[in-house]
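hiii, so i know i said id send this last week but things got crazy w the move. better late than never?? heres the sequnce for the chain we talked about at the cafe, plus the structure i predicted for it. fair warning i was half asleep when i ran it
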Amino acid sequence: VRPGRRGVGETHQTAFRVPQRSLGYWTQRLTEKGIAYEALEKRFGESVLPFTDPDGMALALVGVPGAENEPGYSNGDIPAEHAIRGFHGVTLLLDSAEKTAAVLSDVFGFEETGREGSVIRFKAPGDAQGSVVDIYEAKGFLRGTQGAGSVHHIAFRAADDAAQSVMAQRLVDHHGLHPTEQKDRNYFRSIYFREPGGVLFEIATDVPGFAVDEPVAELGRNLKLPAFLESHRKQIEGVLPNLEETAS
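okay and structure toks below
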């Protein structure tokens, strides 16, 4: 696949949360694995370790005070106390922040919580994980192109169809944006639209959830395919690597 090009109208960086005291462990691990990373930096009072994956995707680990109290899972290699706790947030690289900020606040309920140079931080109400959207305003910067190492879209949650419908109507009435018809993704139902800066946004319902076709205790044990791919199950299983359970 042709590499993507970073630029405006694209996701600039995807960040995951780890305990603050674990950043030293992760710096050492990235060094041992030969993964390119940048110097530790501060953003909005948080310690951030930026790095790039082999496909050129811009990622970061954010040291979050108190994250050590969130569940951590070990694969037998990474100690549970240092494990990634979940999604922290995303940075959008945009020509202008104003109209995108209006969508974040009016449709999704985000609030502006700070500014540092050309970066504006927005957070969803409460202390939920994955509640941060940073807008890096870079007027006149080259537009990005999709490809290997790019992020295709960003998904936001809606509790149910009714909540999603309210959001969709606000997009039309207040912002002149027209989302797609609802797509049934089996575990959730989605609509899509391009926000004013050009990034593809998804609004996905929480319902019916990932336990719709198997018990919660068995999630992740079996390969689940959408109906239109079931006839190709044997071929798909034939090219997938074996995944062995590791006791933790």
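btw The chain is about 15% helix and 30% strand. thought thatd interest u
miss u guys!!
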